[in-house]
Design a protein that fits this description.
By secondary structure, the protein is α+β, with helices and mostly antiparallel strands. The protein has helices at residues 2-19, 64-67, 71-79, 89-92, 167-178, and strands spanning 37-41, 51-60, 95-96, 100-104, 107-115, 123-130, 135-143, 157-162.
Length: 181
Amino acid sequence: MKLSAIALAFSAALACAACSQDKNGAASAPAASATTNKIEVASSISAADGAPVDADLAAKGPYLFDLLQRPDFSAAFAKLSGVSDLPDWTRQGGTSAPAQNIVVSGKPMLVASGCKPHDCPSERIVVLYDEKTHELWGVFAKRTGEAPVDVGDTSNDQLSWLGGPDDGVKALLKRKLYSPE
């Protein structure tokens, strides 16, 4: 009797866990609050070093593959230095999440990311796009050799900088690459 009670409790817990998952297998997250995260970035695109970056987590934009269909974004992406050396999936957007609308030094921008389909830890891309000036910068990360699958471990990635970002933009892109939220 004791064993059947344990099995019943385990089955109920498993059913609850399954119901709290969305169709992609990710656990349901609470609704985003109206708070704004502040990120400090020193960049030549700012009027002053250390200008704040505001990321409203509730303001989500299009997916990377959607952005690549837009003439303005696709033209900027095609002009990026280093983009010709990237794998084909990057030109289609790969597997991605919605872009984040952020503000860098008072300018609204999009941060979009994608990864290699069916093998996200091995190849990832993050881009920062200024919709007004059509400037685009990015970073492409490729996992080296048989390194362990840990997207938070920077030591096993070969980084390729796209579009010649300055140190402030590099810091923002790297932060988004290793800490997407």
